[in-house]
């Protein structure tokens, strides 16, 4: 739902008609009615006109300030609309916390694109994994639906770090966090080499990662993250541990135990059946990944879902 506050009823109808194929739009001509509704109903975007009419004794900045002072409203983006093109006004608007600005009269296509961009970026920021900075579960599922709706074959890889839990337990949470951040940083470098349509990389949580896109891009990502761990073990283990291919620590029974070094396992699926929802695909890939984990060292099993 998008909220639009503007004293011009004709403009409100124009915007509502323009956006009706994409989003639900609720319009308001009076600031107080808008604020009363906003308090109990949080939209995904607010569009506010700077000039709300002399009879209201308020302008767009007054409403923005009120919004920002309300609980749980700091992540709701605001698009300011104005017939005035003044640098000081625009600068003040951004200082007030708006996401973007557009001047009346506007190009309809540009207006829609701005809104798409704001909503996507806001959702992206909210649903990034807090440790790795990669897209989290909701964004991964959304991207899967985009690929699925194209009705064209695509690849996914459900990839995780073998032996991560004992590493995290024995080396410490800080060491575990460093390992995941290093992995995520390397994945971000790989992602930059491909377009957003060719490769998507997300973090389902913990050491579970999800790659999605073209065959070449997904297979290349799996190959290169395996290579990264093969050649950068010194970031996570000392030389004796690397030489011995294990590290010693105390298990939960307070006994000395040898633990394997971390490796990577991947379940790679070629998706040809577009009737499978995301939960079913993760169920299938998790089952295949269990088989991959039984293989010593870095491993990947490729299956076709048709």
Overview in brief:
The protein is of the alpha/beta class and 306 residues long.
Structural features, described:
By secondary structure, the chain is an alpha/beta fold. The chain has two domains: 125 residues, Response regulator (Rossmann fold, 3-Layer(aba) Sandwich), CATH 3.40.50; 169 residues, Alpha-Beta Plaits, CATH 3.30.70. The chain is built from eleven helices and twelve strands. Strands 2-1-3-4-5 form a five-stranded parallel sheet, sandwiched between helices. The protein has a five-stranded mixed sheet with strand order 7-8-6-11-12, with helices on both faces. The chain has a two-stranded antiparallel sheet with strand order 9-10. β4, α4 and β5 form a beta-alpha-beta unit. The relative contact order is 0.09.
Give a quick account of the main beta sheet: strands, pairing sense, barrel closure: 5 strands, parallel
Mean pLDDT across residues: 87
Number of strands: 12
- Give the end-to-end Cα distance, rounded to a whole number of Å: 36 Å
Q: Topology as H/E string?
A: EHEHEHEHEHHEHHEEHHEEEHE
The secondary-structure class comes to alpha/beta
Q: Work out the helix count.
A: 11
- The CATH topology annotation of the largest domain reads as Alpha-Beta Plaits
| Assigned CATH architecture of the largest domain | 2-Layer Sandwich
Total domain modules: 2
